[in-house]
Structures are given as structure tokens and as C-alpha cells.
Amino acid sequence: MEFRIRPYRPSDFEVLFQIDRACFPPGISYPRSELRHFIRQRGSCTWVADAGDETIGFLIACLEPENAVHLVTIDVVASWRRKGIGGALMDVAEEWARQQRALLIYLETAEDNLAAHEFYKARRYSKVEKVDHYYSNGAAAWVMAKSLRIS
Fold first, then answer.
1. Structural domain spans, the chain
2. 48 near 57, Cβ under 8 Å?
3. What is the pLDDT of residues 35-62, one digit of tens each?
């Protein structure tokens, strides 16, 4: 089945919250208030992936000072993984970052999430720094970044 990427609508919030809870364990998934904060934050943009009437993923990005974009989260429903949804969401976010004239895009991913490490590495992200106790459950994370400078 085909999917489409579209801008976030406030009516999407509850579904996105449930997807985040399904994608990540407690301590890594966001509490409702924090997810809402990231979506509403000034300079933030959220995209939603739909297949038919089903929401199958989303990505939140936030423009930060110093010409950087922070990818807050990328979530894809388990049954839809490895079907191009994550890559399509990343493409949209990276293009938006370029339109914002960002020079760098970065994210954090759990130290033990090796599938995510490989996904980002294939997209030319590099591990920059390990952050111990990054998540509220005590897990460490890797900061991974990609230069958006035109070569």
C-alpha cells in the first residue's frame, strides 16, 4: 500500500502519542506533555505519514540557534518499518532543514538501538558524542549528526 507525508494537524495528537508509546519503551517514549511541547514549540515542524486512513508514522524537527535542526523523534509503526516510511520522513525533514538554511541536522538515539544506528549511518549521519544517562530510564544515547553544507 502506498503512503503519503503531510503536515501535522492538532487532531493527530492522540494517535501520535499512542504511536510513540508503541515505538519506544517507558523512559524513552515521551510523556504526553513533553510530546505536545515539542510539537507546539516555536520553530518546530511535524510531519505525519498516512496509508489510507491509518497514521503509520511521524517526525518532529525543531529549528535551533546556530543554524541547526534537531530531529526530536521519528516514529514508524512496527508493521510499516523497512518500507520506506522512515526514509521519506527524513527526506522531508532534511529538505525543510535546508530551506531553513540549517548547516547541521542532529538527533539522539539509544545506545542499544543498533537498527537505528545503521539507518542513520546509511543516511550519512555520524556518531558525535555518547551521552550517558540521557533517557529518564537511565539509558545512554548517541548524538548523531549530518552536515547540510552544500559541497
1. 4-109
2. yes
3. 999 999 999 999 999 999 999 999 999 9
Beta-strand relationship, 68-76 and 104-110: parallel
> How many whole angstroms separate alpha carbon 7 and alpha carbon 43?
14
146: exposed, middle or buried (C-beta count within 10 Å: 0-12, 13-18, 19+)?
buried
Grid cell 558525535 in the structure block, residue: 128
Query: Backbone dihedral region of 147: left (phi > 0), alpha (psi from -120 to 50 degrees) or beta?
Result: beta
Question: What CATH number was assigned to the domain covering residues 4-109?
Answer: 3.40.630.30
Cα dihedral 123/47/95/145 (nearest 10): -40
Q: How confident is the model at residue 150 (pLDDT cuts 50, 70, 90)?
A: low
The cell for 151 is: 559541497
Cβ atoms of 108 and 38 within 8 Å: the answer is: no
What angle, rounded to 10 degrees, do the helices at 32-40 and 13-23 form? 120
What is the Cα gyration radius of the chain?
Answer: 15
Reported as a single tens digit per residue, the pLDDT across 80-100 is: 999 999 999 999 999 999 999
